[in-house]
Amino acid sequence: AAPLRELVKPQQQYFGAALETRHLQDKQFSETLAREFNQLTPENEMKWGYLQPERGQFTFDKADQLVEFAQNNNMTVRGHALVWHIQNPDWLENGDFSKQEMLKIMEEHITTVVSHYKGKVKYWDVVNEALDDNGGFRPTLWYQALGEDYIAKAFEFAHKADPDAILVYNDYSTEGKSPKANAAYRLVKKLKEQGVPIHGIGTQAHLVVGVQPRVADIAANIERIKELGLEFHFTEVDMRIQGEATDRALQQQANMYQELARLSAYYDNVNFLTTWGITDKYSWIPSWFKGYDHGLMFDKQYQPKPAYLAVNEVFTDK
Ligand SMILES: OC[C@H]1CNC[C@@H](O)[C@@H]1O[C@@H]1O[C@H](CO)[C@@H](O[C@@H]2O[C@H](CO)[C@@H](O[C@@H]3O[C@H](CO)[C@@H](O)[C@H](O)[C@H]3O)[C@H](O)[C@H]2O)[C@H](O)[C@H]1O
């Protein structure tokens, strides 16, 4: 099978992966990344806690290394994530700031970070996980300080700093049909109608083998987003298996990866298929979901799994 990135035209279809700089120390990791993927997402090192650990002090060294690797390997970078309620520094978490000051703090961070990466980071997860599982607004430090308006403001600040960047609202459990998926649809529809510079929606697709969403529901979601003139991205794909990675479980996993690949190949507003890591050797899954593992397309020895072959097949036949 030809490497994934050779099966598609650049800019038309992204096969991406999340990573940290420490992963690049592993030669097999960096070789597999550069051979197979044409896009990368910093798994942690572009988050607020890493970029602005102290107020007004920005540390770009780790994130710059990832951007440099991408440039050296002709890969597109997706920035993740400008505004989120997790992995924020203590000065921000515990600060007692007025509404005006919180808005200024958010503007300073977004303007500084997006300007620093202007022309180097083409896609940004501007706001991540603003909705709770019932579809209401998560009572984050941003929502409590600024109300719902913080979302529109974040997009406006990002667009002002880099008018060419493609700006996305990112969340999880919004793949198929659910109150949360409907709330995400209403949110981006409202932002679009308000003239806010938003260009797409990202759904993380951290799925569980055996309980995945119906493909028809994901397709219906993609189509209503397409009607809004917005892109639909699979941003953090992994499909965790409970217990042993049996042939049956690996085949079920391959079928679901293939379904997402087919949706990406079929819909022109779906051009991102990014996995949250490359190899099961390095994945957040085992430490967060006891008894689950094996969520990615390459096993712990960097051998392609049925999931990889199933995705490759879709774009080989295309
Ligand atoms: O949770 C999975 C996705 C869900 N969507 C948003 C996306 O951003 C999120 O990614 C995960 O986001 C998680 C935080 O919420 C990240 O987890 C953090 O990952 C960090 C870097 O590896 C960890 O920080 C390290 O912790 C070590 C021990 O505690 C320390 O020794 C290290 O110095 C410190 O860097 C944090 O504890 C750990 O909580 C995961 O790696 C990362 O995969």
TrEMBL record:
Which residues are in the GH10 domain?
1-314
Q: Which family does it belong to?
A: Belongs to the glycosyl hydrolase 10 (cellulase F) family.
Q: What is this protein called?
A: Beta-xylanase
Source organism (scientific name): Agarivorans gilvus
Q: Span of the full-length protein shown?
A: 27 to 344 of 745
